[in-house]
Amino acid sequence: QVPLVESGGGLVQAGGSLRLSCAASGRTFSSYGMGWFRQAPGKEREFVAAIRWSVGSTYYADSVKGRFTISGDGPRNAVYLQMNLLNPVATAVYYCAAALQASSILKFPANYALWGQGTQVTVVS
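Structure (tokenized):
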């Protein structure tokens, strides 16, 4: 159904780690880059991390820098998000997305054409 499918979400204790995965489902495509966003109830969807395949550049929101690591395989349209030292603020639905054309920055939802349905991450203290 959906072009991308996330997995790996769940409930984790504060200070713990979680690894999210995202992969293409059914559709074959070539992406310029992929990213992760998150959204909590009553809040706007916010940028978390992104990776640009051509040069392997990665980008992170200041709030997760040093604790989250994005990686993936462009040809396979697969992306991962290793989350360490989690805190309750990280509680949200996490979405992966794919950008199908070049963009100077990959920090905004408008730059992405394909999205997954999201996976819930809940961090408890």
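The chain has a mean pLDDT of 94. Residues 4 and 47 are 17 Å apart (CA to CA).
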